[in-house]
Amino acid sequence: MAEAQPPAVAPPAVALPAAPPPYPDPAAPPPRFAPGAVVRVRRGAAPGHIRTPWYLRGRLGRVERVCGWFANPEELAYRRPGLPRRALYRVRFSMAELWGEGSRDTVDAEIFEHWLEAADA
User: Fold this and answer.
1) Which of 31, 49, 82, 97 is the most exposed place for a label (fewest CB within 10 A)?
2) Is residue 13 assigned to a domain?
3) pLDDT tens, residue by residue, 8-46
4) Predicted confidence band at 97 (pLDDT cuts at 50, 70, 90)?
5) Rounded to whole angstroms, how far apart are CA atoms 58 and 64?
6) For residues 84 and 66, is the Cβ–Cβ distance under 8 A?
7) Mapping DSSP to helix (H, G, I), strand (E, B) and coil, where does residue 96 land?
8) Backbone dihedral angles phi then psi of residue 39, each to the nearest 5 degrees
């Protein structure tokens, strides 16, 4: 008896976007924040499509890593090219910073550079 095989996967119905540029993108400016930097998520509101969670606005976190440079999804949502590419950071927040509890747990979020500012700003 033949061993069961998973079903074949059909190709996507739409063309997938090209892979992001290699890390780091040689055409992009250097990242503003290095791993370990303390940053604050901007409080501002922008019209339309926003990729930064509301519960993180105004909160302090620490940059864990620079994820690379990617097209701006806030522009891609309107079928624009998403340029210039933006640096994306993984930022770690303490649960106590977010919800005021004594928890030692953390939350990691990936946030684009234009939503971050230096903690002392």
Assistant:
1) 49
2) no
3) 665 655 555 555 554 556 677 889 999 999 999 998 776
4) confident
5) 18
6) no
7) helix
8) -130, 160
pLDDT at residue 77 in the model: 79
Residue 71 identity:
A
> What CATH number does residue 88 fall under?
2.30.30.50
Compute the distance between CA of residue 100 and CA of residue 86 in angstroms, rounded to an integer: 31
Domain region containing 111: 38-118
12 domain-assigned:
no
Asked whether the beta carbons of 52 and 78 are under 8 A apart, the reply is no
The token pair that represents 22 in the structure block: 């290699």
Percent of the chain with pLDDT over 70: 74
pTM for the model stands at 0.74
What count of residues does the chain have?
Answer: 121
Q: DSSP string covering 17-84, please? A: PPPPPPSSPTTSPPPSS-TT-EEEE-----SS---S-GGGTT-EEEEEEEEEEE--HHHHTTTS--PS
In a domain, 96, yes or no: yes
Give the position of tokens 């499509």.
Answer: 49
